[in-house]
Design goal:
With 379 residues, the chain is an alpha/beta fold. The protein contains 13 helices and 14 strands. Strand 6 and strand 7 form a beta hairpin. The longest helix has 21 residues. It is globular and about 60 Å long. The two termini are 36 Å apart. 51% of the residues are buried. The structure holds pyridoxal-5'-phosphate (PLP).
Length: 379
């Protein structure tokens, strides 16, 4: 017998009502029934994105929405600024370069957040910059960037602000309109508690100005087609009907809970995990930039981080994430977004303590769990 728990930054656990919604008989998409659901879902997404802009639903993982942003905004030969503070910032560069877009890359040390002034400086140095690509929560490092400050810098320039909110949306605050985010992309399998398979992209009217002139080749991800269809509450191709029906349920639940409460729940979980890590003597990789969606901590010197993650998963059924690329084996990442509650956290930390002990790490057994429980009693 084995009971499994998922504490990874995507996919995240599915609430039972999501599984129930996905088990319903399929319906056809060119019907009034589906049209009503599509309308509710699009409105629900606007609520969660905190925007009045159109939000398009794509049948893709989050990266498909990232690619949609690049190919719909840009032409080969354009120049953009990219904030690379981890693996997902690097993905923006890779997609842009695949489309022959010139990248002015701001390299930020992993675990740190970009200095908004640096964006201002580079924008000032090149008035031809078309777009600035950023990441709300850099899932590979656990760090969050100050999108509000970046938005203030970009709003009065010709450039558009593009935000990868794939792991942040529905977990940490992102005010798309109030913070002047022209394009926000997200995906289904993180804060939104769904299986992978949906990508989302919101587009401001400023950004639509670029879409009109962008020359990067595109067909499936063409937002002009998507816009024409959405204006008639329709989709250009067969949508991922089942996932959209489940998404509609998630969005209703988020609306019922209220975004403010959703964010404060994530904050509580984030504080608890960070406090527990520190109590165990583990250093937070992103320090004071740590997000409330995922926490990354350094693996103690001399311990094999990959073995730690593997033992938690294969021996005890608790899946957390390790480090990626340059941080492989050196980080543990515990996600606390979506369908996660305080006792999921207690369980994860308890398992971490057990395996750390087995691997010979010295600390006071129970100190992480105690620290987390104290946070939960207080907040
Ligand atoms: C997960 C993630 C992605 C990639 O999304 P996929 O759904 O795997 O394509 C991109 N950016 C961030 C910040 C992520 O957390």
């Amino acid at each position: 017998m084995r009971k499994n728990y998922l504490l990874t930054p995507g996919p995240t656990p599915l609430p039972p009502y999501v599984c129930e919604a996905m088990s319903r008989p399929i319906i056809h998409h060119r019907t009034p029934q589906f049209q009503a659901i599509l309308k509710e879902t699009t409105d629900g997404l606007r609520y969660v994105f905190q925007t009045k802009n159109d939000v398009f639903i794509l049948a893709s993982s989050g990266t498909g929405a990232m690619e949609a942003a690049v190919v719909n905004l840009l032409s080969p030969g354009d120049t953009v600024i990219i904030v690379e503070a981890g693996k997902f910032g690097e993905r923006w560069t890779e997609i842009c370069r695949a489309n022959n877009v010139n990248c002015d890359v701001i390299k930020v040390e992993w675990g740190h957040a970009v200095e908004p002034k640096e964006i201002e400086r580079r924008l000032g140095a090149n008035p031809k910059i078309k777009a600035v690509f950023t990441t709300l929560c850099e899932t590979s490092t656990g760090a969050k960037s100050d999108i509000e400050a970046i938005g203030k810098i970009i709003k009065d320039t010709p450039a558009v602000l593009v935000v990868d909110a794939i792991s942040g949306l529905g977990a940490v605050d992102l005010k798309t309109d109030a913070w002047f985010c022209d394009v926000v992309v997200s995906g289904s399998q993180k804060g939104l508690m769904l299986p992978p398979g949906l990508g989302f992209i919101s587009v401001s009217s400023k950004a639509f100005g670029l879409v009109e002139n962008a020359k990067c080749p595109r067909y499936y991800l063409d937002l002009k087609k998507a816009k024409k269809a959405l204006d008639k509450t329709d989709t250009p191709f067969t949508p991922a009907i089942t996932l959209i029906i489940a998404l509609n349920e998630v969005l209703k639940m988020l609306k019922e809970d209220g975004l403010e409460n959703v964010f404060s729940r994530h904050k509580k979980l984030g504080v608890a995990v960070r406090t527990a890590m520190k109590a165990l003597g583990l250093e937070l990789f992103a320090g004071s930039n740590s997000s409330d969606a995922v926490t990354a901590a350094n693996v103690p010197a001399g311990l094999d981080g990959e073995k730690l993650v593997k033992t938690m998963r294969d021996t005890y059924g608790i899946t957390i994430a390790g480090g990626q690329d340059e941080m492989k084996g050196k980080l543990i990442r515990i996600a606390h977004m979506g369908f996660i509650e305080e006792f999921d956290i207690i369980l994860g930390i308890s398992c971490l303590e057990k395996v750390l002990t087995q691997m010979g790490y010295k600390f006071e057994l129970g100190s992480g769990v105690k620290a987390a429980e104290e946070v939960f009693l207080r907040v």
